[in-house]
Amino acid sequence: MFHWIENWLRSRNFQTALLRQDWRQAKQLFKVIEQSGQRLSLLEKSFKQRIQLEKQLLTLTNENSTLSNKLDACLSQRRQTIISDLAFIKHVYHSFQLVKLDPYLVKVTGLETDVFYDLEKNLTNFVDSEVQNFAEKMSAQDFQSKLKEAMNDLEEIKYGVNLEYCQSLTPYVYFIKYFLDNVYHGYLAWFLLYEAGLLTSQINILDISAGTGTVAYGLALMLLSASKYQRLPQPHVCYCSLEQQAALQYRGLQFWRRYIQQKPFSFNTYTYFETVDILNFKSYTEKIVDHFFDFIVLANFCFFPPQKRLEVYEIYKHIFQSKLTTNGHILIIVKGTQLFNTYNISQSEYSGQEQVVIDIFLEELGLKLEWYKYLSSTGKRMPMGLEFAQFAKDTLPPQPYMSNLRKRYLKEPFIANYKIDDYIILAKPIS
């Protein structure tokens, strides 16, 4: 009789604890009920199932945590930081004749000739063969007309005027006129990141307005150079190109396969090309993985006309916020003259002025500055003007192979030189 009353009281107190959502007391009372051996009610059976499910969930959570820790450890081992090698750093400073003139200004008058002359020779042979095949299909007059159209195309691209550039010879004129300098700038930009200890063995890059992919070439050649001085962890590079014209992407990839992929130093490269109108963000955003990229690169930065600029910058902000990893960076390579001209400010030797301009520029892009360097062939912030041609002839490394093509196809009478007038800016999105 008394056992029946005790059981009833325990069950009633258990129900009351459930109604009050006092789960701690409910579990204590249920434990006593279960140990008493009394027959469980439907409610008590349901509660027992809940406790069992909670235990299973806790077990699964612990297992998931253990697996996550193991996965993080594996990824950490795979994504090793590339340790800066002092001998390689000294080699680059010597080859490129890098001289730090102040905390922000670096004079550059040299070249790693073994690397760049090999690139230049192979590029010249590739372009000459392709252009000759093109020229054979038309009259000399039509060929010259096509060359002129391509040159006009590229001039308009520089100022963001022509967003529909599509001339058949545009990629080849780009190779002849701009490619080598842009790879030169890219090599030095990646070297600065290498020197700062910001590169890892696994690098995911989103290249906006990528053109022929000089960003990827610059990184590949820099890693190729570094591999001669240190044993690098196996690099895995995921390179995603956003570009409006497929011809530029295709020709860049075509030469990549003929040249970079034939090099003895192997690194795994996954390339993904999206031929898109950058302004139509909705058309391609789902095709690109969110929060995946370690670096989003704006190389050879193009300033659009004022009426377009804010629209383009808003798209850039969306890309930065949605596609960059938590610890990722924005890498910008922009010509000094173009940067200052955009804001109608004359360059001067005063570094405080350039910092103001860079702050304005980054604020428009929704970015905050990490650091910047101004790489200048002359060692000056102010343009040299008409005297630069003689300075380049006397001081800067020539382009011996490509100059022949520039003379033959572009009618340039002078020897071209490797030169630089660029800000290398590292930034992060404003939270």
Written description of the protein model:
The longest helix has 37 residues, at 42-78. The protein has helices at 2-19, 23-36, 42-78, 86-95, 113-135, 140-158, 170-195, 214-226, 246-258, 306-323, 336-342, 351-364, 388-395, 402-410, and strands at residues 98-100, 105-108, 202-208, 236-243, 268-275, 293-298, 324-335, 367-376, 421-429. It is of the alpha/beta class. Strand 4, helix 9 (246-258) and strand 5 (268-275) form a beta-alpha-beta unit. Strands 1-2-8-9-7-6-3-4-5 form a nine-stranded mixed β-sheet, sandwiched between helices. Helix 1 (2-19) packs antiparallel against helix 2. 53% of the residues lie in helices and 16% in strands. The model is unreliable at 71-77 (pLDDT under 50). It has 14 helices and nine strands.
Helix tally equals: 14
The largest sheet has its strands arranged as 1-2-8-9-7-6-3-4-5
Q: How many strand units?
A: 9
Shape: elongated
Structural category: alpha/beta
One letter per element, helices H and strands E, the order comes to HHHHEEHHHEHEHEEHEHHEHHE
Poorly predicted runs of 5 or more residues: 71-77
Q: How much helix, percentage-wise, in residues?
A: 40-55%
Report the major sheet. 9 strands, mixed
Distance between the termini: 70 Å
